[in-house]
């Protein structure tokens, strides 16, 4: 969570790189009146342009962009695991609330009679404690469901080398080119493996264990200005020619 508070990096932070760069379209932000590199967008909440902006998150009170997107994803991923772990503590109380405690009694092999938690731990199963764990289960399960959906959404975006803003921009561009009988390809999509390596900042997969699973402040490979690209547009005829060449 602490790393999500890092600055996502603005064009002003990389002004020297922008001036010397020829790898982006020369756009100027109408609000900042400053050169805006490719994939940079203006945040209306922070009133500044952010490199590779995904969105402004109110929960961390910060923009999610080039330098802290990985930390934000890790934050959501581990928070999902934590909420699931917290929900597991109240699952038994949820079962008892729905079906009653007698439905979950246990057979004592020594005495041959059925007992439940009240007979074993009367203090722990008091009404106040039971309602506390029941409330914990409901809150944690709700958070877990929301976080699972949000984390899966970002996994899908990262696999396609897109941000939330890129997703909507590319969708509209894809529709426009389809009418012209052309196919749009995300110019920054380098393939599933390379997309994840660039996002996580690793050269080899085993580096994930000590660069991402453990606290690490290593920077992404890209500087947020110069992005490796592929050919973004080609016609349906080019696609058919490409298929014939590989037959």
Short summary of the structure?
The chain is mainly alpha-helical and 247 residues long. Helices cover 45% and strands 11% of the residues. It has helices at 15-19, 69-89, 91-99, 117-120, 127-159, 164-179, 192-200, 208-211, 236-245, and strands at 27-28, 35-36, 41-43, 48-50, 55-57, 62-64, 106-107, 114-115, 182-184, 233-235.
Count of β-strands: 10
Q: Biggest sheet: strands side by side, in what order?
A: 1-2
> So how many helices?
9
- What's the Cα radius of gyration? 25 Å
Q: What is the domain tally? A: 1
Based on Cα principal axes, name the global outline.
elongated
Q: Terminal Cα separation, in Å?
A: 51 Å
Helix-residue proportion: 40-55%
Mean pLDDT: 78
Strand portion, in percent?
A: 5-15%
Give helix and strand order, one letter per element, not per position.
Answer: HEEEEEEHHEEHHHEHHEH
Structural class: mainly alpha
Word description of this protein:
The protein is mainly alpha-helical and 247 residues long. It has one domain (6-235). The chain contains nine helices and ten strands. The strands form five sheets. The chain has a two-stranded antiparallel ribbon.
Q: Which secondary structure elements does this structure contain, and how are they paired or packed?
A:
Layout: H1 15-19, E1 27-28, E2 35-36, E3 41-43, E4 48-50, E5 55-57, E6 62-64, H2 69-89, H3 91-99, E7 106-107, E8 114-115, H4 117-120, H5 127-159, H6 164-179, E9 182-184, H7 192-200, H8 208-211, E10 233-235, H9 236-245
Antiparallel strand pairs: 1-2, 3-4, 5-6, 7-8, 9-10
């Amino acid at each position: 969570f602490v790393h999500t508070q890092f600055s996502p990096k603005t064009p002003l932070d990389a002004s020297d790189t922008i001036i010397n760069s020829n790898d982006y379209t020369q756009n100027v932000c109408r609000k900042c009146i400053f050169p805006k590199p490719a994939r940079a967008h203006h945040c209306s909440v922070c009133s500044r342009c952010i490199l590779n902006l995904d969105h402004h998150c109110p929960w961390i009170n910060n923009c999610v962009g080039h330098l802290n997107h990985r930390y934000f994803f890790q934050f959501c991923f581990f928070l999902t695991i934590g909420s699931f772990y917290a929900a597991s503590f109240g699952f038994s109380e949820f079962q008892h609330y729905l079906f009653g405690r007698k439905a979950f009694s246990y057979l004592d092999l020594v005495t041959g009679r059925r007992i439940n938690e009240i007979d074993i731990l009367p203090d722990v199963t008091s009404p106040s404690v039971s309602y506390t764990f029941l409330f914990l289960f409901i809150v944690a399960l709700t958070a877990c469901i929301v976080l699972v959906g949000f984390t899966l959404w970002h996994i899908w975006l990262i696999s396609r080398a897109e941000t939330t803003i890129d997703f909507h921009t590319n969708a509209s561009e894809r529709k426009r080119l389809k009418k012209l009988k052309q196919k749009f390809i995300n110019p920054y999509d380098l393939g599933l493996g390379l997309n994840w390596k660039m996002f996580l900042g690793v050269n080899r997969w085993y580096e994930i264990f000590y660069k991402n699973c453990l606290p690490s402040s290593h920077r992404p490979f890209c500087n947020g200005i110069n992005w490796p690209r592929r050919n973004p547009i080609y016609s349906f005829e080019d696609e058919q020619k490409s298929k014939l060449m590989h037959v």
